[in-house]
Amino acid sequence: MRNIMPTQVSFPRVSLPDNERVTLISIGLFSAFVNLLMMTGPMFMLQVYDRVLPAHSVPSLTSLFLIVVFMFAILGLLEYSRSRLMARLAARFRMRNEETVFRAALAHEGGSVALNDLDQVQGLLSSRAALAIFDLPWSPLFFAAMFLFHPYLGVLALAGTGVLIGLALLARPLTKKSQAIANKAQTRAQHVSSSLQTEAELIRALGMQGNGFHRWHSARTEALQAELSTQDRSAVLSVTGRSLRHLLQAAILALGALVVLRGEMTAGAMIAGSILMGRALSPIEMIIGNWNQITRGYQAWQRIAPLLRTCTAKPMLPLPQPRADLSVKELSLVPPKGQAPVLRLVSFDLAPGQALGVIGPSGAGKTSLARALCGLWPPTTGQIRLDGAKLDRYGADQLGTYIGYLPQNVTLFDGTIAENIARLDPAATMEGIIDAAKRAAAHQMILDMPDGYETRVSLLGGQLSGGQVQRIGLARALYNNPILLVLDEPNSNLDAEGTEALNSAIRHMKAQEHAVIVMAHRPSGIMECEQLIMLDRGLCRASGPRDEVLAKTVRASRQDPALANIGPHRIRSATG
What we know:
The chain is α/β, with parallel strands linked by helices and 576 residues long. The protein is built from 20 helices and twelve strands. The strands form three sheets. It has a six-stranded mixed β-sheet with strand order 6-9-10-3-11-12, sandwiched between helices. Helix 3 (58-107) runs parallel beside helix 11 (291-311), helix 6 (139-149) runs antiparallel to helix 7 (151-198) and helix 19 packs antiparallel against helix 20. The longest helix has 53 residues, at 209-261. The chain is elongated.
């Protein structure tokens, strides 16, 4: 491969397990015997034209043919075996890396294409182009045989090979730009399609189906045009390479015939040289013909490699279950791919058995703080410690069992209600699921549904109301009895019964010496909170006991109208 690709192109080095290394060695050995057996056809032609025909020997022809049948049977078996080995090597490569790639895709914004990239790499590894790379080092063997037949044949073969290699070197710069444009356009079309499907009901309700189709059609047309442009260029290269190979084989025959007429070579050598020429150029033609797939696989690997380096988890000793002792010191936070901080020097402590309310106007940084507390956004500066350990000292899945999180916008996974509450845990028990549902006051609501806990829901909740989705989301956050509960606007869609269930769940958490953090706009959300902090534009304007902070908020709202939407008067009246 390195012989025909530009010098600046190189695949990142990867370490292979012993079994995959043995498989690669086996494929290399099989390729050696395959290419040696490829000499069977030319040698058969040489013997037939130079020995059998002049001698008119039928027994010799029969013997030679039986030998050829046996050799081609072995060749076919070896070809089949190495194809199977290559396909399984590609499958093992995917299986070994798919969990890491999956976690990387979840951890990085825009990483959703990583799994598709892994498919592209697997497809390249199991393709004929990958096997052509194993055949390429054996091409000099065929060129050497042509030089043995006659120097002229060898020189013509090398010259033709140089032309094809030049064509291969030209392939990447000719298709690189168009391939990049096609990939970008395809990704955009997929994003447009996904967003329109997600908001299908809203689009129908607002009469936007025509406009939505126009937007998707425009994106898809742009992607299609870019794909056609890439395919056209790849087709030109492929057809040119194939035509050149046919021309070179014809040229070898013509030159061989001329040499035969001059009495410097036999007719059998002429025919054998033509076959050898085709075999020598076959790997190069295969690579040129599959250049589009090679380019896509290479670009996919280039995207996966840094993702793997970034997200490969360092081995760490598992920490014991922590106490609900949370400490946030001078936390500043810049969102992923953001530039301006959304939180600046925020500090507070939360002890076991306490509940902390976080209030502030829209855009104050409440949701950003919730994401940081759950380990979703790493601190830019400052520290978040749980029972004395930084959050990154806990594995992502381990931390998720200790922290229950209810996001501002609750979404449900495709599956049953029970699976959603259990966080898709295949080992979950119905006792644990029902316990979480009861603490969220969702048990009876679920039993009243047609299939109870087996009722299937979709990404958008299906036929469930916003309040039902939020209560199921609360049950999911309470599942497995987390030590810290982070609730972002938990009562935005709840009725009086749901709000009472929420407050009851908070009281239950505190009674267990666990801790709760509530980001709230509505006063009923912080009724069970002893401590309160008020955020404004990413800064902590006030913190301390709830009533003291509310008093400061009332005074601040009189001076700054932007703080009036916190509703301090309503909060004071609701909390007494």
